[in-house]
Amino acid sequence: MSRLINELIRTGYLRSDPIIDAFAQISRVEFVPDDLIGAAEMDIPLPIGHGQTISQPLTVAFMMELLDPRKGNKVLDVGSGSGWTTALLAHIVGQTGQVTSLELIAQLCQRGEHNVEKFGFVSAGVASFHCLDGSKGYAPYAPYDRILVSAAAEKVPQALKEQLKIGGKMVIPIRNNICYLEKKEDGSFAQEKFGGFSFVPLLERR
């Protein structure tokens, strides 16, 4: 495994075997612009165009461990950018799972689909891409076992709350906090917040 992955394991950001394996198999180098390939293994966010970034690996590891995706899960990936999180999730959920990727910027949505197909996940039917407003979720495939949002919202969008299964988990940045939500039997949510992070804003279609 790379020095970066070993460091994320050493510092406790990567802990579970399925997520460690996904990080090892799905290299970030496949999801950064050509002129930034040399920086892909650095633990920093990198620009991917259109004012967007591919998140810092430490942040992605932290969010993935909170999300706890499992084999066979149905996952909604909101604000998928160049596709790295979608590919990581597709690797984890496997052939019996499904990852629905939402990206509002058309050029990034197309690039993300191209990048994820390098691993065969799109043609295998594990991952699908939709150029849509992520704050509204994607009702046709709901409800979801897991929802990952990689851009900061002012509050948790109601549509995403409604599209999460009972017992499902959502990880979403709210301003500069990463929020973990779990949907309870009565439809209410258990919630935890983790501070000290920074994200691009969640884009909504006006």
- Mean pLDDT comes to 95
Structure annotation, total helices: 6
Largest sheet: 7 strands, mixed
| SS strand fraction | 15-25%
State the secondary-structure class.
alpha/beta
Plain-language structure description:
This protein is of the alpha/beta class and 206 residues long. 27% of the residues lie in helices and 25% in strands. The chain contains 6 helices and 9 strands, in the order ααββαβαβαββαβββ. It has helices spanning 3-10, 17-25, 57-67, 84-93, 106-117, 158-163; strands at residues 46-49, 52-54, 74-78, 98-102, 127-130, 144-149, 164-174, 177-183, 189-194. The protein has a 7-stranded mixed β-sheet with strand order 5-4-3-6-7-8-9. The protein has a two-stranded antiparallel ribbon with strand order 1-2. The protein is globular and about 50 Å long. The mean pLDDT is 95.
Task: Describe this structure in a few short sentences.
The protein has helices at 3-10, 17-25, 57-67, 84-93, 106-117, 158-163; strands at 46-49, 52-54, 74-78, 98-102, 127-130, 144-149, 164-174, 177-183, 189-194. The protein is an alpha/beta fold and 206 residues long.
How would the blueprint of this fold be written?
Blueprint lengths: L2 H8 L6 H9 L20 E4 L2 E3 L2 H11 L6 E5 L5 H10 L4 E5 L3 H12 L9 E4 L13 E6 L8 H6 E11 L2 E7 L5 E6 L12
Parallel strand pairs: 3-4, 3-6, 4-5, 6-7
Antiparallel strand pairs: 1-2, 7-8, 8-9
